[in-house]
Specification:
The chain has one domain: Rossmann fold (3-Layer(aba) Sandwich). It is built from 13 helices and 7 strands. It has a 7-stranded mixed β-sheet.
């Protein structure tokens, strides 16, 4: 049954249960096998990719000093190396969709909170059958598939990682959906779409990789039809964060590599960039209960640290190759720093901004 976004209840927590969470064991086995078969170069490139997270897009001088004048290409290469491995690591747990959602229901699992979030996104951008919708940073196409399932909209997903795009195509084809998936770096503008070709836009935690949100939002404005709605759900530093505070700065250095953030936007910077591009911002908030995502972050961290202990034991017994330990030690390095920053309200990865392109050109 396909429902329009408007038919989804404002509080659909009673409608989302564990029975609706995807069966994970096949995905787990497939991801596990992929990780086992990684080449030494793929592992080395993944580990080396973390160098970009000690820098920030806003400091071009430092970028050029580190990577040369073609630093954007170098960062893109690192992102491809990073996500081509990370997406399989995440698929061993509840974050195959590559994001920890807002806390929408305290009693629900991470997976079910993802579904609740995606239903909220569908309502905000008013998805309906026949709409053509752009999903920036679409990952493995799991969110796109759910959006199509609940709304009947056609999703066009864009992602820098060809590995994830191939998985997105495979899943959506298997489900019989007419969704499309494009390999493209969001920082390579213009986007490969005609003017006024989309009825709506959403993205979930992909703008941490965006070099210049102002330029990107202008191009998204170009490809959206008049009246189209826009939603981002992403990482920001919050007003309580003080870069001059040694504790705050130390936590930030630990968390940015964990969440894959090169830029450091704020709620205000997102709203200004959208308004400068021509959008009318209608909402800017944190949809998590109490404004805290930490309970879900902690669940994910506890699970992966437990899995890491199992991995260590299997590597010690020579049942698994040593690179499993290397990868899991890196993956689990700073989860509690992420929890602490969220509890201190220094950052969140679930800031939501909703905007709309005017129905009539101004």
């Amino acid at each position: 049954m396909v429902m329009t976004a408007s038919s989804l209840p404002a509080d659909s927590s009673l409608q989302v249960g564990h029975s609706q969470s995807p069966k994970r064991w096949r995905t787990f086995i497939k991801a596990f096998q992929h990780i086992r078969n990684l080449t030494p170069k793929e592992v080395d490139d993944f580990m080396a990719s973390y160098e970009i997270y000690s820098l920030d897009w806003t400091d071009e001088e430092q970028m050029i000093a580190a990577f040369g004048p073609n630093y954007q290409q170098h960062v893109g290469d690192c992102l491809r190396a990073y996500y081509s491995v990370l997406n399989h690591l995440c698929s061993l747990g509840d974050v195959e969709k590559m994001y920890i959602p807002p806390l929408m229901d305290k009693k629900a699992s991470v997976l079910d909170n993802q579904l609740l979030n995606e239903e909220a996104v569908a309502r905000e951008v008013q998805l309906a059958p026949g709409m053509k919708v752009l999903d920036l940073g679409c990952g493995r196409g799991r969110v796109a598939a759910y959006m199509t399932n609940i709304s009947g909209a056609k999703i066009v997903g864009l992602n820098i990682d060809s590995n994830q795009i191939s998985q997105a195509r495979e899943l959506n084809d298997a489900l019989g959906f007419d969704n499309q998936f494009v390999v493209h770096d969001q920082n390579d503008l213009p986007l490969p779409f005609p003017d006024e070709s989309f009825d709506a836009f959403y993205e979930i935690q992909a703008l941490s990789l965006c070099k210049d949100p102002s330029l990107l939002f202008r191009d998204i404005y170009r490809v959206l039809k008049p009246g189209a709605r826009f939603l981002l759900l992403d990482w920001v530093s919050l007003p309580a964060y003080n870069p001059m505070d040694p504790k705050h700065a130390g936590l930030m250095r630990r968390v940015k590599p964990l969440i894959g953030a090169v830029g450091t936007p704020t709620p205000a910077s997102f709203s200004k960039a959208l308004e400068d591009a021509g959008f009318a911002v209608t909402k800017s908030d944190n949809p998590s209960i109490g404004g805290l995502q930490a309970p879900l972050i902690d669940k994910v961290d506890i699970y992966f640290r437990g899995l890491r202990r199992v991995i260590h034991g299997l590597v010690k017994l020579h049942t698994l190759p040593a690179h499993f330990r290397t990868l899991f030690d890196r993956l689990c390095l700073d989860g509690q720093a992420f929890v602490e920053m969220d509890n201190l309200r220094l950052i969140t990865t679930t800031w939501r901004v909703v905007a709309q392109k005017p129905a009539v050109a101004i």
